[in-house]
Amino acid sequence: MKARIGDIDIHYTIEGQGPWVTMSHSLACDSSMWDAQAALLAPHFTVLRIDTRGHGQSSAPAGPYSMNMLAGDVHGLLQHLKIEHTHWVGLSMGGMIGQAYALAHPGVFSSLVLADTTSRRPPNAAQMWGDRIKMAQEKGMTALVEGTLSRWFTEPFRQREPAIMARIGQGIANTPVNGFAGCCAAIAEVDYLDRLKEIKAPALVIVGDQDHGTPPEMARLIHQNLPGSELLVIQDAAHIANIEQAEVFNQALMGFLQRH
Question: Which of 74, 79, 86, 248 is in Cβ range 3.0-4.6 Å of 20 for a Cys bridge?
Fold first, then answer.
Protein backbone atom coordinates (compact mmCIF):
# COMPACT_ATOMS: atom_id res chain seq x y z
CA MET A 1 0.00 0.00 0.00
CA LYS A 2 1.05 3.60 -0.54
CA ALA A 3 0.10 6.87 1.11
CA ARG A 4 0.76 10.37 -0.14
CA ILE A 5 2.71 12.03 2.66
CA GLY A 6 3.63 15.61 1.86
CA ASP A 7 5.15 15.57 -1.63
CA ILE A 8 6.13 11.87 -1.74
CA ASP A 9 4.54 8.42 -1.72
CA ILE A 10 5.43 6.20 1.24
CA HIS A 11 5.03 2.45 0.74
CA TYR A 12 3.97 0.37 3.73
CA THR A 13 2.54 -3.02 4.68
CA ILE A 14 0.23 -3.99 7.56
CA GLU A 15 -0.11 -7.52 8.93
CA GLY A 16 -1.57 -9.17 12.01
CA GLN A 17 -3.73 -7.95 14.88
CA GLY A 18 -3.16 -6.46 18.29
CA PRO A 19 -1.17 -3.43 19.50
CA TRP A 20 0.76 -1.58 16.80
CA VAL A 21 4.43 -2.32 16.15
CA THR A 22 6.18 -0.15 13.55
CA MET A 23 9.37 -1.47 11.93
CA SER A 24 12.03 0.65 10.21
CA HIS A 25 14.89 -0.77 8.13
CA SER A 26 18.57 -0.09 7.53
CA LEU A 27 20.11 2.07 4.82
CA ALA A 28 20.15 0.30 1.42
CA CYS A 29 17.49 -2.20 2.52
CA ASP A 30 13.71 -2.11 2.47
CA SER A 31 10.94 -3.37 4.72
CA SER A 32 11.49 -6.97 3.57
CA MET A 33 14.51 -7.13 5.90
CA TRP A 34 11.93 -7.65 8.66
CA ASP A 35 10.16 -10.63 7.03
CA ALA A 36 11.11 -13.13 9.76
CA GLN A 37 10.25 -10.73 12.57
CA ALA A 38 6.93 -9.68 11.02
CA ALA A 39 5.89 -13.33 10.70
CA LEU A 40 6.77 -13.86 14.37
CA LEU A 41 4.93 -10.77 15.63
CA ALA A 42 1.80 -10.79 13.45
CA PRO A 43 -0.17 -13.31 15.59
CA HIS A 44 0.21 -10.95 18.58
CA PHE A 45 0.59 -7.44 17.12
CA THR A 46 -0.50 -5.31 14.18
CA VAL A 47 2.81 -4.92 12.33
CA LEU A 48 3.40 -1.81 10.22
CA ARG A 49 6.49 -1.92 8.02
CA ILE A 50 7.62 1.21 6.23
CA ASP A 51 9.89 1.71 3.22
CA THR A 52 11.90 4.79 4.17
CA ARG A 53 12.01 7.70 1.72
CA GLY A 54 14.40 6.79 -1.10
CA HIS A 55 14.11 3.03 -0.51
CA GLY A 56 11.97 0.12 -1.63
CA GLN A 57 8.75 1.24 -3.26
CA SER A 58 8.68 4.70 -1.65
CA SER A 59 9.50 7.83 -3.64
CA ALA A 60 13.20 8.68 -4.07
CA PRO A 61 13.46 12.43 -4.65
CA ALA A 62 16.86 14.08 -4.92
CA GLY A 63 18.44 14.86 -1.52
CA PRO A 64 20.00 15.67 0.74
CA TYR A 65 17.53 14.42 3.35
CA SER A 66 17.61 15.13 7.08
CA MET A 67 16.74 12.86 9.98
CA ASN A 68 13.93 15.27 10.90
CA MET A 69 12.57 14.86 7.37
CA LEU A 70 12.62 11.05 7.67
CA ALA A 71 10.93 11.25 11.08
CA GLY A 72 8.40 13.65 9.55
CA ASP A 73 7.53 11.05 6.92
CA VAL A 74 6.81 8.57 9.71
CA HIS A 75 4.67 11.10 11.55
CA GLY A 76 2.66 11.82 8.42
CA LEU A 77 2.04 8.11 7.85
CA LEU A 78 1.04 7.44 11.47
CA GLN A 79 -1.42 10.34 11.27
CA HIS A 80 -2.74 9.04 7.93
CA LEU A 81 -3.34 5.62 9.52
CA LYS A 82 -4.75 7.21 12.70
CA ILE A 83 -2.14 5.46 14.87
CA GLU A 84 -1.86 7.25 18.22
CA HIS A 85 0.52 4.82 19.94
CA THR A 86 2.94 2.22 18.59
CA HIS A 87 5.99 0.24 19.59
CA TRP A 88 9.01 1.08 17.41
CA VAL A 89 11.58 -1.40 16.11
CA GLY A 90 14.42 0.17 14.13
CA LEU A 91 17.77 -1.15 12.96
CA SER A 92 20.69 1.10 12.01
CA MET A 93 19.10 4.04 10.15
CA GLY A 94 15.74 2.84 11.46
CA GLY A 95 17.03 3.22 15.01
CA MET A 96 18.20 6.76 14.23
CA ILE A 97 14.79 7.67 12.78
CA GLY A 98 13.19 6.25 15.92
CA GLN A 99 15.33 8.45 18.17
CA ALA A 100 14.53 11.54 16.10
CA TYR A 101 10.82 10.73 16.22
CA ALA A 102 10.74 9.95 19.95
CA LEU A 103 12.40 13.29 20.70
CA ALA A 104 10.08 15.24 18.38
CA HIS A 105 6.85 13.46 19.40
CA PRO A 106 7.11 12.27 23.01
CA GLY A 107 4.38 9.90 24.13
CA VAL A 108 3.67 8.24 20.78
CA PHE A 109 6.07 5.30 21.17
CA SER A 110 5.01 2.71 23.74
CA SER A 111 8.55 1.29 23.59
CA LEU A 112 11.64 1.38 21.38
CA VAL A 113 13.93 -1.35 20.10
CA LEU A 114 17.14 0.28 18.86
CA ALA A 115 19.25 -2.32 17.07
CA ASP A 116 22.76 -1.87 15.64
CA THR A 117 22.41 1.89 15.58
CA THR A 118 24.10 5.06 16.80
CA SER A 119 23.17 8.25 18.62
CA ARG A 120 26.25 10.25 17.61
CA ARG A 121 28.09 10.51 14.32
CA PRO A 122 31.82 9.70 14.41
CA PRO A 123 34.30 12.57 13.88
CA ASN A 124 34.95 11.47 10.28
CA ALA A 125 31.25 11.12 9.40
CA ALA A 126 31.13 13.85 6.76
CA GLN A 127 34.07 12.43 4.82
CA MET A 128 33.06 8.77 5.22
CA TRP A 129 29.47 9.27 4.06
CA GLY A 130 30.61 11.76 1.44
CA ASP A 131 32.92 9.13 -0.05
CA ARG A 132 30.08 6.59 -0.20
CA ILE A 133 27.76 9.13 -1.82
CA LYS A 134 30.44 9.92 -4.41
CA MET A 135 30.98 6.24 -5.19
CA ALA A 136 27.25 5.63 -5.63
CA GLN A 137 26.84 8.67 -7.87
CA GLU A 138 29.89 7.92 -10.02
CA LYS A 139 29.89 4.11 -10.17
CA GLY A 140 26.34 3.10 -9.23
CA MET A 141 25.10 1.10 -6.27
CA THR A 142 26.56 -2.18 -7.54
CA ALA A 143 30.02 -0.85 -6.65
CA LEU A 144 28.96 -0.70 -2.99
CA VAL A 145 27.58 -4.23 -2.68
CA GLU A 146 30.67 -6.21 -1.65
CA GLY A 147 31.98 -3.65 0.82
CA THR A 148 28.54 -3.27 2.40
CA LEU A 149 27.99 -7.02 2.78
CA SER A 150 31.42 -7.39 4.41
CA ARG A 151 30.47 -4.76 7.01
CA TRP A 152 26.98 -6.11 7.55
CA PHE A 153 27.74 -9.81 8.12
CA THR A 154 30.54 -11.89 9.60
CA GLU A 155 32.71 -13.84 7.17
CA PRO A 156 31.49 -17.29 8.37
CA PHE A 157 27.85 -16.26 7.79
CA ARG A 158 28.62 -14.87 4.33
CA GLN A 159 30.32 -18.14 3.37
CA ARG A 160 27.52 -20.26 4.84
CA GLU A 161 24.56 -18.38 3.35
CA PRO A 162 25.25 -17.51 -0.31
CA ALA A 163 21.55 -17.30 -1.16
CA ILE A 164 20.90 -14.75 1.57
CA MET A 165 23.96 -12.76 0.45
CA ALA A 166 22.74 -12.77 -3.15
CA ARG A 167 19.27 -11.56 -2.12
CA ILE A 168 20.52 -8.79 0.16
CA GLY A 169 23.22 -7.81 -2.33
CA GLN A 170 20.56 -7.42 -5.01
CA GLY A 171 18.59 -5.21 -2.63
CA ILE A 172 21.61 -2.96 -2.12
CA ALA A 173 22.17 -2.76 -5.89
CA ASN A 174 18.49 -1.88 -6.45
CA THR A 175 18.48 0.99 -3.94
CA PRO A 176 17.98 4.28 -5.83
CA VAL A 177 21.14 6.41 -5.82
CA ASN A 178 19.04 9.44 -4.84
CA GLY A 179 17.67 7.58 -1.84
CA PHE A 180 21.03 6.22 -0.74
CA ALA A 181 22.77 9.59 -1.08
CA GLY A 182 19.90 11.46 0.57
CA CYS A 183 19.85 9.15 3.58
CA CYS A 184 23.66 9.13 3.87
CA ALA A 185 23.47 12.89 4.32
CA ALA A 186 20.89 12.47 7.08
CA ILE A 187 22.93 9.80 8.89
CA ALA A 188 26.05 11.99 8.78
CA GLU A 189 24.25 14.57 10.98
CA VAL A 190 23.04 12.27 13.78
CA ASP A 191 23.72 13.68 17.26
CA TYR A 192 21.15 12.61 19.87
CA LEU A 193 23.28 11.10 22.64
CA ASP A 194 22.98 14.04 25.05
CA ARG A 195 19.19 14.17 24.60
CA LEU A 196 18.39 10.47 25.12
CA LYS A 197 17.45 11.13 28.76
CA GLU A 198 14.38 12.98 27.42
CA ILE A 199 12.96 9.70 26.06
CA LYS A 200 10.72 8.13 28.70
CA ALA A 201 9.54 5.00 26.84
CA PRO A 202 11.04 1.60 27.74
CA ALA A 203 13.85 0.67 25.37
CA LEU A 204 15.85 -2.38 24.34
CA VAL A 205 19.27 -1.70 22.80
CA ILE A 206 20.61 -4.57 20.69
CA VAL A 207 23.99 -4.87 18.96
CA GLY A 208 26.04 -7.58 17.30
CA ASP A 209 29.34 -8.21 19.07
CA GLN A 210 31.15 -7.88 15.72
CA ASP A 211 29.30 -4.81 14.47
CA HIS A 212 32.07 -2.41 13.41
CA GLY A 213 29.78 0.23 11.87
CA THR A 214 27.76 0.89 15.03
CA PRO A 215 29.89 -0.98 17.57
CA PRO A 216 29.01 -2.35 21.01
CA GLU A 217 30.74 0.67 22.58
CA MET A 218 28.10 2.93 21.04
CA ALA A 219 25.28 0.61 22.13
CA ARG A 220 26.62 0.81 25.69
CA LEU A 221 26.64 4.63 25.48
CA ILE A 222 23.03 4.61 24.29
CA HIS A 223 22.10 2.25 27.12
CA GLN A 224 23.89 4.42 29.71
CA ASN A 225 22.17 7.60 28.48
CA LEU A 226 18.69 6.15 27.96
CA PRO A 227 17.05 5.76 31.39
CA GLY A 228 15.58 2.35 32.12
CA SER A 229 16.85 0.77 28.92
CA GLU A 230 18.02 -2.81 28.54
CA LEU A 231 21.12 -3.89 26.58
CA LEU A 232 21.67 -7.10 24.63
CA VAL A 233 24.96 -7.87 22.86
CA ILE A 234 24.39 -10.74 20.40
CA GLN A 235 27.34 -13.07 19.89
CA ASP A 236 28.58 -13.94 16.39
CA ALA A 237 26.67 -11.15 14.67
CA ALA A 238 27.78 -8.06 12.79
CA HIS A 239 25.53 -5.17 11.69
CA ILE A 240 22.33 -6.88 10.48
CA ALA A 241 21.81 -8.91 13.63
CA ASN A 242 18.12 -9.63 12.99
CA ILE A 243 19.11 -11.73 9.95
CA GLU A 244 22.47 -13.15 11.02
CA GLN A 245 21.24 -14.30 14.44
CA ALA A 246 17.49 -14.30 13.84
CA GLU A 247 16.61 -16.79 16.58
CA VAL A 248 18.37 -14.85 19.36
CA PHE A 249 17.10 -11.52 18.02
CA ASN A 250 13.53 -12.79 17.74
CA GLN A 251 13.47 -14.23 21.25
CA ALA A 252 14.70 -10.94 22.71
CA LEU A 253 12.30 -8.87 20.59
CA MET A 254 9.21 -10.90 21.44
CA GLY A 255 10.09 -11.08 25.12
CA PHE A 256 10.60 -7.31 25.33
CA LEU A 257 7.39 -6.43 23.46
CA GLN A 258 5.30 -8.84 25.51
CA ARG A 259 6.62 -7.25 28.73
CA HIS A 260 5.69 -3.78 27.53
Answer: 86
